[in-house]
Design goal:
Layout lengths: L6 E5 L10 H11 L8 H7 L4 H14 L10 H9 L8 H10 L3 E9 H10 L3 E9 L5 E6 L4 H10 L7 E6 L5 H5 L3 E5 L3 H7 L5 E3 L2
Helix pairs in contact: 2-3, 4-6
Length: about 210
């Protein structure tokens, strides 16, 4: 692969690099360990991981359940370590991103998962992470407020902050329609494990589709 130091990669995380979801997998782990009780939602989501309704319900319950808590006791570092050491957690896109980074590309992960997960995950691979900001008070306790990175609009705003026009080549990876801004701003776009509806909706803005 030719070295290109003026290349940038922008990628989603959940369903694009990590199978299922960085944040929802964390919710399921907290539930299994008895740290936070999420009721039946983790098992329902695990049985139907593409169900948008269950995804939203569990993500919102996760956010709300952290209110008043701090990062201490959530096992974030141990969880990220468990994720990164198991190759079964990833699509082939991770190896591809690592190869691009090895040859000089800057890699930015833009995700709706919490920044305290995304940034640690990204740093492990030499990437940079931009996630949803879970607001904390002066004592480090979660307030229940969240500046989300879920929508197309939020992702577009993040892309604008990266100054993409300064790069000779922009590559994008994503798996849902909310990743359209990544594709629209890229010279080459890769769609990962899309549903049939997503594939059809994004067919005109992607160059490659991956099914792992």
């Amino acid at each position: 692969m030719k070295v290109m130091s003026n290349r940038i990669v922008v990628s989603d995380v959940d369903g694009t690099i990590v199978r299922r979801s960085l944040v929802l997998n964390h919710a399921a782990k907290l539930h299994e360990e008895g740290i936070i009780d999420f009721g039946e939602l983790p098992s329902q989501w695990q049985a139907d991981p593409k169900n948008e309704g269950l995804i939203t319900q569990l993500a919102e319950l996760y956010r709300d359940s952290l209110t008043g808590l701090t990062l201490d006791g959530l096992g974030v570092d141990a969880y990220i370590q468990d994720v990164v050491i198991d190759p079964k957690n990833f699509y082939s896109t991770l190896a591809r991103l690592r190869e691009l980074r090895k040859f000089g590309a800057q890699v930015f992960l833009i995700s709706g998962s919490p920044s305290f997960l995304v940034e640690r995950f990204a740093a492990h691979f030499g990437f940079q992470g931009i996630g949803s900001e879970y607001v904390m008070d002066e004592f480090g306790r979660f307030t229940g407020e969240c500046v989300g990175m879920f929508s197309s609009k939020a992702k577009q705003t993040s892309l604008e902050s990266l100054g993409l026009k300064q790069y000779d080549e922009v590559l994008a990876f994503g798996d849902t329609e909310s990743d359209r801004p990544l594709f629209n701003n890229a010279h080459y776009s890769v769609l990962v494990e899309p549903t049939k509806a997503t594939h059809e909706a994004l067919a005109t803005v992607v160059n490659e589709v991956i099914y792992d």
